[in-house]
Specification:
mainly alpha; 70% helix; Bact_Transport_Assoc
């Protein structure tokens, strides 16, 4: 691993050939880690959340915590991460062209690396992995890399729009069926026994859940693809570069996003966690997914407004290091939460309510922010980033492939 000390991206220093890291991209990615952790930790720690049922024995404060996670985080942050993945693809193509290497070969190796990391992640740690989805669906970006920004936006609108309308229509039909599905207590007990049993039973349970993980790729595909395309369009227009967008536009987008996203999030959370009964759940999912992009956009614009305010330096110092180590932090979240939840460590699976899990997630996120800041002061890449870049470049990240020259430390490219 390259141990050369480097300056933080908050410095915003231009690299060779006028390129620079984009603090906004890293900051947004670091912020999105919080929402991903909130959602994933609930799934990792609760058999009811992982099976898609309300906990019938939840205390009032746990019901409130589960409701807030559904309203504020579910569906919103994987879209933001996907948008940033599409945006970062434009940076990777620039980096590949600058280094004189083929974009196709480099990105195919990166996609393969994501699939392999995701498969290990899903089997050994958390079955709700997103990396396999990115590795597979990211190939669409490779095929669409020469698409015009306006065409990418139209394609994203059609893909997500048709999906949202279909899902909402199916949900509306489901409300006519007044048939409450009972909680499968035997299945809940079996899953609890597996995750509290031994390391072997944890892996076997994750292997049994792999078909569901592959089904999730299909279910999430429209949202991920749409966000990829929007990120691609934004990257081509350099919207996250300094001066890429103005304050008035950010304020308008925030206001519109909140106006559309908040009511949708409230309805979704009420259908998923109560007080609405179970027959509203599918419609809640349709409405929640339809309006999630609006709230995701509002979150992103609010952070961008902070990045263009007197709080700029503080916000960058807080979120940028975590964003540069996003892959390491994502995998680290699963590792720590699975240690707490399963027979890998403390076996607390199903024993803690949603409020305690949310507090644990907040503490873990704060720890990751601090550790990321300390790490990035000394090292250029996190462990997972170093491994993925080694696969992507087919060589050590410290050197540009085929040149013998050291990789440019401040180049505008994702970690």
């Amino acid at each position: 691993m390259d141990t050369t000390p480097v300056r933080t991206p908050a410095d915003g220093l231009p690299g060779p050939a006028g390129l620079r890291r984009l603090p906004a991209v890293d900051a947004l990615r670091g912020f999105a880690l919080l929402g991903i952790l909130m959602v994933n930790s609930a799934q990792i720690m609760s058999p009811y959340e992982s099976e898609g049922f309300r906990d019938p024995g939840a205390a009032p404060w746990d019901q409130v915590a589960a409701w807030l996670v559904s309203a504020l985080a579910t569906f919103k942050f994987y879209l933001l991460f996907s948008f940033l993945f599409g945006y970062s693809f434009t940076l990777q193509t620039v980096a590949a062209e600058r280094d004189g290497t083929g974009v196709t070969a480099r990105f195919l190796r990166r996609s393969l690396g994501l699939v392999l990391l995701g498969l290990v992640h899903a089997v050994v740690l958390y079955s709700g992995d997103i990396l396999m989805t990115y590795g597979v669906l990211g190939l669409v970006l490779l095929c669409a890399r020469r698409i015009r920004p306006a065409t990418a936006v139209k394609a994203a609108t059609w893909v997500y729009g048709v999906f949202a309308v279909f899902l909402t229509a199916m949900g509306a039909l489901a409300t006519a069926v007044d048939d409450e599905e009972p909680v499968p207590r035997q299945e809940i007990a079996r899953v609890v026994a597996a995750y509290r049993g031994s390391a072997g039973t944890v892996v076997r349970e994750n292997l049994d859940r792999l078909p569901l993980a592959f089904f999730a790729i299909v279910l999430m595909a429209p949202g991920v693809l749409a966000a990829f395309l929007l990120g691609l369009a934004a990257g081509k227009r350099r919207l996250l570069a300094p001066g890429g967008t103005d304050r008035a536009r950010l304020l308008r987008t925030t206001a519109l996003g909140l106006a559309v996203g908040v009511p949708g999030a409230v309805f979704f959370a009420s259908a998923a966690q109560g007080p609405l009964d179970d027959r509203w759940q599918l419609l809640g999912i349709g409405v929640g997914m339809s309006t999630a992009p609006a709230l995701s956009a509002a979150y992103a614009c609010l952070l961008l407004l902070l990045l263009n305010s007197p709080w700029t330096d503080r916000v960058q110092r807080l979120f940028v290091p975590a964003g540069r180590l996003a892959l390491t932090n994502y995998l680290g979240q699963s590792l720590i939460m699975m240690f707490v939840a399963t027979a890998y460590g403390l076996s607390r699976y199903g024993r803690w309510g949603a409020a305690a899990v949310l507090l644990l997630a907040g503490a873990l996120y704060a720890l990751q922010l601090a550790l990321s800041t300390a790490w990035i002061r000394r090292l250029r890449h996190g462990p997972a980033e170093w491994l993925l870049r080694t696969l992507t470049l087919a060589g050590r990240p410290g050197r540009a492939p085929g040149t013998g020259a050291r990789e440019r430390p401040n180049a505008d490219r994702p970690a």
